[in-house]
Structures are given as structure tokens and as C-alpha cells.
Amino acid sequence: MRTWFPWFSLLARLVLGGVMLVAGALKVTDPETAAQAVRAYELLPSSLVEPVGWGMPFLEIAIGLLLIIGFGVRAAAVAAGVFMVVFIVAVASAWARGLSIDCGCFGGGGQVAPGQTKYLQEILRDVGLLVLAGWLWLHPVSKFAVVSEPDTEPQGVTAS
């Protein structure tokens, strides 16, 4: 492992965790709007829209906090990566179907006027965050983490 890897992993944790935390925090105070944003994608059956809209912000906050404090980094990075893949697919699907919606990524969401969508920017942002999640999956050891990943500790070292 190169000496700068733990520092870059710290940066990745803070950026990815910060985005997840802020995104969840902005939505958790207005779950009706979060559900409206989920509904606008027209991907889920109506029976799942409310649970997803109400539950997703709490999961985003939990993942963000885990990444920021550095606890369970590899698992939190996988969860964040799954979220990013789902977001990329959902936004690309809306774009391909000609829907005019705001992604609702940081609150709000729902219908917008044609031409006011930002699908490409949203997909590129989420791809960048997916890259950070992949980095953290590969290199979970970072500076100032609460807990180091047990399977990434040096092997053969004994305490005396």
C-alpha cells in the first residue's frame, strides 16, 4: 500500500459520506416530498413508493455517518455504491423515457418543465461517487477511522 492511500481514503470517506449525509438530512424532514420524488420516476409499484421515500433518507444518513466516522468502511462503501448504481439507473431510465423530473437527490423532486432536467450532470456526479465507493471497497484503511478493517491489517504481526 502506498503511503498516500490512507489519506486519499480519508478524503473519499469524507466526500462520499458527506454527500450521503447531506442528501439524507435534506430529505428526512420532508418525507412526503421524498416519496413524491420516488413516485416521479414511475419505476416502483405504488405500494413501495411510500416506504422507499420515507426510508431512503434514514439509510443515506446512516451510511454517511458510518463513512464519516470510519466504522465499517468497506460495508458502508458497498451500500453507498449500490445506492449510486440505483440512482444512475433510475436517472438514466427517466432520461431515456423522456420524463421531465428533478432527481430529488437533495430534497425536492418531481415534475419540472421540459429542458430544466440535469440528467447528464446527475449521472456524472453519481458515477464519480461510485468511483469513490469502489476505491473505499478496495482500500478501506484510512486516516482517522474509528475502526480499521480487520482483514486489511498487516499479517504476521504480534503484540508484545
Automatic annotation (TrEMBL):
Domain Methylamine utilisation protein MauE, residue spans: 7-138
Listed transmembrane segments: 51-69, 76-96
Membrane topology label: Multi-pass membrane protein
One Pfam family per UniProt: MauE
GO biological process: methylamine metabolic process
UniProt keyword Transmembrane helix present: yes
Residue ranges that the Swiss-Prot or TrEMBL entry lists as coiled coil: none
GO cellular component: membrane
This protein's record includes keyword RNA-binding: no
Record's keyword terms, sorted: Membrane, Transmembrane, Transmembrane helix
Subcellular location: Membrane
Main location: membrane
InterPro entries hit by this protein: Methylamine_util_MauE
Protein name as catalogued: Putative membrane protein YphA (DoxX/SURF4 family)
